[in-house]
Protein backbone atom coordinates (compact mmCIF):
# COMPACT_ATOMS: atom_id res chain seq x y z
CA UNK A 1 0.00 0.00 0.00
CA UNK A 2 1.13 3.51 -0.80
CA UNK A 3 1.28 6.44 1.60
CA UNK A 4 1.83 10.01 0.35
CA UNK A 5 3.72 12.20 2.78
CA UNK A 6 4.07 15.99 3.03
CA UNK A 7 7.22 17.40 4.62
CA UNK A 8 9.31 20.55 5.03
CA UNK A 9 12.97 20.93 4.17
CA UNK A 10 14.12 23.86 6.32
CA UNK A 11 17.12 26.19 6.48
CA UNK A 12 19.39 23.82 8.38
CA UNK A 13 19.47 21.38 5.45
CA UNK A 14 18.93 23.79 2.55
CA UNK A 15 22.33 22.90 1.07
CA UNK A 16 21.88 19.13 0.81
CA UNK A 17 21.19 17.77 -2.66
CA UNK A 18 18.14 15.87 -3.86
CA UNK A 19 20.05 12.57 -3.66
CA UNK A 20 21.28 13.34 -0.15
CA UNK A 21 17.72 14.13 0.86
CA UNK A 22 16.53 10.78 -0.49
CA UNK A 23 19.28 8.97 1.44
CA UNK A 24 18.31 10.82 4.63
CA UNK A 25 14.66 9.78 4.24
CA UNK A 26 15.61 6.16 3.51
CA UNK A 27 17.68 5.99 6.69
CA UNK A 28 14.85 7.56 8.69
CA UNK A 29 12.35 4.99 7.37
CA UNK A 30 14.64 2.18 8.53
CA UNK A 31 15.25 3.78 11.94
CA UNK A 32 11.51 4.33 12.37
CA UNK A 33 11.00 0.57 11.90
CA UNK A 34 8.23 1.14 9.39
CA UNK A 35 7.04 -1.96 7.46
CA UNK A 36 8.49 -0.61 4.23
CA UNK A 37 8.33 -2.47 0.95
CA UNK A 38 11.55 -3.23 -0.92
CA UNK A 39 12.23 -4.01 -4.57
CA UNK A 40 13.15 -7.54 -5.62
CA UNK A 41 16.53 -8.64 -6.93
CA UNK A 42 20.17 -8.69 -5.86
CA UNK A 43 20.18 -5.08 -4.64
CA UNK A 44 16.81 -4.40 -2.99
CA UNK A 45 15.94 -0.83 -2.06
CA UNK A 46 12.99 1.01 -0.59
CA UNK A 47 10.05 1.71 -2.87
CA UNK A 48 10.30 5.46 -2.38
CA UNK A 49 9.70 8.34 -4.80
CA UNK A 50 10.11 12.06 -4.19
CA UNK A 51 8.39 14.87 -6.04
CA UNK A 52 10.13 17.52 -8.14
CA UNK A 53 13.65 18.22 -6.86
CA UNK A 54 14.24 21.36 -4.84
CA UNK A 55 17.22 23.47 -5.93
CA UNK A 56 20.18 23.41 -3.55
CA UNK A 57 20.00 26.44 -1.25
CA UNK A 58 16.21 26.69 -1.24
CA UNK A 59 13.79 25.97 1.57
CA UNK A 60 10.69 23.87 0.82
CA UNK A 61 7.65 24.11 3.11
CA UNK A 62 5.31 21.76 1.25
CA UNK A 63 7.32 18.93 -0.35
CA UNK A 64 6.07 15.38 -0.95
CA UNK A 65 7.22 11.80 -1.28
CA UNK A 66 5.51 8.44 -1.79
CA UNK A 67 6.41 5.39 0.31
CA UNK A 68 5.15 1.83 -0.15
CA UNK A 69 4.35 -0.20 2.98
CA UNK A 70 3.74 -3.94 3.32
CA UNK A 71 1.09 -3.43 5.98
CA UNK A 72 -1.13 -0.56 7.01
CA UNK A 73 -0.35 1.39 10.16
CA UNK A 74 -2.00 4.56 11.39
CA UNK A 75 -1.15 7.65 9.35
CA UNK A 76 -0.47 9.74 12.46
CA UNK A 77 1.85 7.02 13.73
CA UNK A 78 3.84 7.25 10.50
CA UNK A 79 4.24 11.01 11.05
CA UNK A 80 5.37 10.55 14.66
CA UNK A 81 7.86 7.77 13.91
CA UNK A 82 9.46 9.56 10.98
CA UNK A 83 9.80 12.85 12.86
CA UNK A 84 11.52 11.01 15.70
CA UNK A 85 13.98 9.54 13.19
CA UNK A 86 14.69 12.55 10.98
CA UNK A 87 16.99 15.56 11.57
CA UNK A 88 15.14 18.48 13.14
CA UNK A 89 15.30 20.47 9.89
CA UNK A 90 13.25 17.89 7.98
CA UNK A 91 9.74 17.77 9.40
CA UNK A 92 6.89 15.49 8.38
CA UNK A 93 3.63 17.47 8.26
CA UNK A 94 0.96 15.01 7.14
CA UNK A 95 0.57 11.52 5.68
CA UNK A 96 -2.33 9.99 3.77
CA UNK A 97 -2.85 6.63 2.12
CA UNK A 98 -3.56 6.84 -1.61
CA UNK A 99 -4.66 4.20 -4.16
CA UNK A 100 -1.86 1.87 -5.22
CA UNK A 101 -2.17 2.83 -8.88
CA UNK A 102 -2.39 6.59 -8.32
CA UNK A 103 -0.30 8.67 -10.71
CA UNK A 104 3.18 9.55 -9.48
CA UNK A 105 3.97 12.92 -7.91
CA UNK A 106 6.14 13.78 -10.90
CA UNK A 107 3.16 13.12 -13.21
CA UNK A 108 0.43 15.03 -11.36
CA UNK A 109 2.04 17.98 -9.55
CA UNK A 110 1.80 20.88 -11.97
CA UNK A 111 1.81 24.06 -9.84
CA UNK A 112 4.17 25.60 -7.30
CA UNK A 113 4.10 28.70 -5.14
CA UNK A 114 7.44 30.46 -4.59
CA UNK A 115 8.13 33.37 -2.27
CA UNK A 116 11.11 35.53 -3.15
CA UNK A 117 12.60 38.12 -0.80
CA UNK A 118 13.98 40.84 -3.10
CA UNK A 119 15.56 42.66 -0.15
CA UNK A 120 14.71 46.27 -1.04
CA UNK A 121 13.45 49.20 1.02
CA UNK A 122 9.67 49.33 0.60
CA UNK A 123 9.71 53.01 1.59
CA UNK A 124 11.81 53.83 -1.47
CA UNK A 125 10.28 51.54 -4.10
CA UNK A 126 6.68 51.53 -5.35
CA UNK A 127 6.51 47.76 -5.82
CA UNK A 128 2.73 47.77 -6.31
CA UNK A 129 3.19 49.97 -9.38
CA UNK A 130 5.91 47.63 -10.65
CA UNK A 131 3.56 44.68 -10.14
CA UNK A 132 0.75 46.46 -11.99
CA UNK A 133 3.09 47.15 -14.89
CA UNK A 134 4.35 43.58 -14.93
CA UNK A 135 0.85 42.09 -14.93
CA UNK A 136 -0.14 44.28 -17.87
CA UNK A 137 2.52 42.71 -20.09
CA UNK A 138 1.45 40.11 -22.64
CA UNK A 139 4.91 38.55 -22.76
CA UNK A 140 7.71 38.06 -20.25
CA UNK A 141 10.49 36.59 -22.36
CA UNK A 142 13.72 35.20 -20.96
CA UNK A 143 16.62 33.21 -22.40
CA UNK A 144 16.76 29.75 -20.83
CA UNK A 145 20.28 28.34 -20.54
CA UNK A 146 20.44 24.61 -21.29
CA UNK A 147 23.25 22.13 -20.80
CA UNK A 148 24.56 20.56 -24.03
CA UNK A 149 21.78 22.30 -25.99
CA UNK A 150 21.29 25.68 -27.60
CA UNK A 151 19.82 28.41 -25.42
CA UNK A 152 16.05 28.76 -25.77
CA UNK A 153 13.87 31.86 -25.84
CA UNK A 154 10.92 31.31 -23.51
CA UNK A 155 7.80 33.31 -22.63
CA UNK A 156 7.07 32.93 -18.91
CA UNK A 157 3.79 34.89 -18.98
CA UNK A 158 1.40 31.98 -19.76
CA UNK A 159 3.02 29.93 -16.98
CA UNK A 160 2.62 32.59 -14.27
CA UNK A 161 -0.86 32.22 -12.79
CA UNK A 162 -0.71 34.78 -10.00
CA UNK A 163 1.64 37.31 -8.35
CA UNK A 164 1.18 38.92 -4.95
CA UNK A 165 3.36 41.20 -2.82
CA UNK A 166 3.53 41.16 0.97
CA UNK A 167 2.29 44.50 2.33
CA UNK A 168 4.97 44.67 5.01
CA UNK A 169 8.02 43.03 3.44
CA UNK A 170 9.73 43.01 0.03
CA UNK A 171 8.52 39.45 -0.54
CA UNK A 172 6.79 38.47 -3.78
CA UNK A 173 4.63 35.34 -4.12
CA UNK A 174 4.51 33.67 -7.53
CA UNK A 175 2.06 30.91 -8.40
CA UNK A 176 3.53 29.21 -11.45
CA UNK A 177 3.48 26.15 -13.64
CA UNK A 178 5.90 23.38 -12.75
CA UNK A 179 6.62 19.90 -14.08
CA UNK A 180 6.68 18.41 -17.56
CA UNK A 181 3.87 20.56 -18.98
CA UNK A 182 5.83 23.77 -18.32
CA UNK A 183 8.32 24.66 -15.65
CA UNK A 184 9.12 28.14 -14.29
CA UNK A 185 12.40 28.35 -12.40
CA UNK A 186 12.70 30.85 -9.52
CA UNK A 187 16.04 32.03 -10.93
CA UNK A 188 14.23 32.99 -14.14
CA UNK A 189 11.60 34.97 -12.25
CA UNK A 190 14.36 36.84 -10.45
CA UNK A 191 16.21 37.55 -13.68
CA UNK A 192 13.05 38.63 -15.51
CA UNK A 193 12.27 41.29 -12.90
CA UNK A 194 15.87 42.46 -12.68
CA UNK A 195 16.10 42.92 -16.45
CA UNK A 196 12.88 44.95 -16.60
CA UNK A 197 13.06 47.01 -13.40
CA UNK A 198 16.31 48.57 -12.30
CA UNK A 199 15.17 48.85 -8.68
CA UNK A 200 14.64 45.05 -8.39
CA UNK A 201 18.09 43.58 -7.84
CA UNK A 202 19.05 39.96 -8.41
CA UNK A 203 19.05 37.86 -5.24
CA UNK A 204 20.45 34.36 -4.54
CA UNK A 205 18.32 31.23 -4.24
CA UNK A 206 18.67 31.36 -0.46
CA UNK A 207 16.11 34.20 -0.69
CA UNK A 208 13.59 31.79 -2.24
CA UNK A 209 11.13 29.48 -0.49
CA UNK A 210 9.00 26.93 -2.26
CA UNK A 211 5.84 27.41 -0.23
CA UNK A 212 4.01 24.42 -1.65
CA UNK A 213 3.44 21.99 -4.50
CA UNK A 214 -0.06 21.50 -5.87
CA UNK A 215 -2.33 20.01 -8.49
CA UNK A 216 -4.35 22.65 -10.33
CA UNK A 217 -8.02 21.81 -10.82
CA UNK A 218 -9.79 24.76 -12.46
CA UNK A 219 -9.22 27.71 -10.13
CA UNK A 220 -8.38 25.47 -7.14
CA UNK A 221 -4.94 24.36 -5.94
CA UNK A 222 -5.10 20.95 -4.29
CA UNK A 223 -2.48 18.97 -2.42
CA UNK A 224 -1.46 15.80 -4.29
CA UNK A 225 -3.12 13.54 -1.70
CA UNK A 226 -6.47 15.36 -1.85
CA UNK A 227 -9.37 13.00 -2.60
CA UNK A 228 -10.29 14.99 -5.73
CA UNK A 229 -6.79 14.30 -7.07
CA UNK A 230 -6.14 10.67 -6.18
CA UNK A 231 -9.59 9.48 -7.23
CA UNK A 232 -9.69 11.26 -10.56
Structural account:
Helices cover 23% and strands 31% of the residues. With 232 residues, it is an alpha+beta fold. It has two domains: 2-105 and 224-230, Alpha-Beta Plaits (2-Layer Sandwich); 108-222. The strands form two sheets. Strands 1, 2, 3, 4, 5, 8, 9, 10 and 11 form a nine-stranded mixed beta sheet that branches. It is elongated and about 55 Å long. The protein is built from six helices and eleven strands. α1 packs across α2.
SSE topology string: EHEEHEHEHEEEEHEEH
The figure for the number of domains is: 2
Based on secondary structure, the structural category is alpha+beta
As residue ranges, the low-confidence spans are: none
How many DSSP H or I helices?
A: 6
Helix percentage: 10-25%
In terms of DSSP E residues, the strand content is: 25-35%
CA-CA gap between termini: 18 Å
**What's the pLDDT, averaged over the residues?**
94
Strand segment count:
11
Biggest β-sheet: count, sense, barrel?
Answer: 9 strands, mixed
Write down the Rg: 19 Å
Shape, per Cα inertia axes: elongated
Topology, pairings included?
Blueprint: E1 2-9, H1 18-31, E2 48-50, E3 59-68, H2 75-85, E4 90-98, H3 105-108, E5 111-117, H4 127-135, E6 141-144, E7 152-155, E8 160-165, E9 171-177, H5 186-196, E10 208-217, E11 220-222, H6 227-230
Parallel strand pairs: 3-10
Antiparallel strand pairs: 1-3, 1-4, 2-3, 5-9, 5-10, 6-7, 8-9, 10-11
Amino acid sequence: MKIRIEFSKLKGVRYISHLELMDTIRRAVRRANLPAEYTQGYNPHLVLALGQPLAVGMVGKGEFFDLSLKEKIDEKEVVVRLNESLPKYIRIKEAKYVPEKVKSLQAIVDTAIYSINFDYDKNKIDDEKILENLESKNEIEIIRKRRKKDDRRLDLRPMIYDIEIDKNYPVWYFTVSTGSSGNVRPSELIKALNERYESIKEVPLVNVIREGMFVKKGDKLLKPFASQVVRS
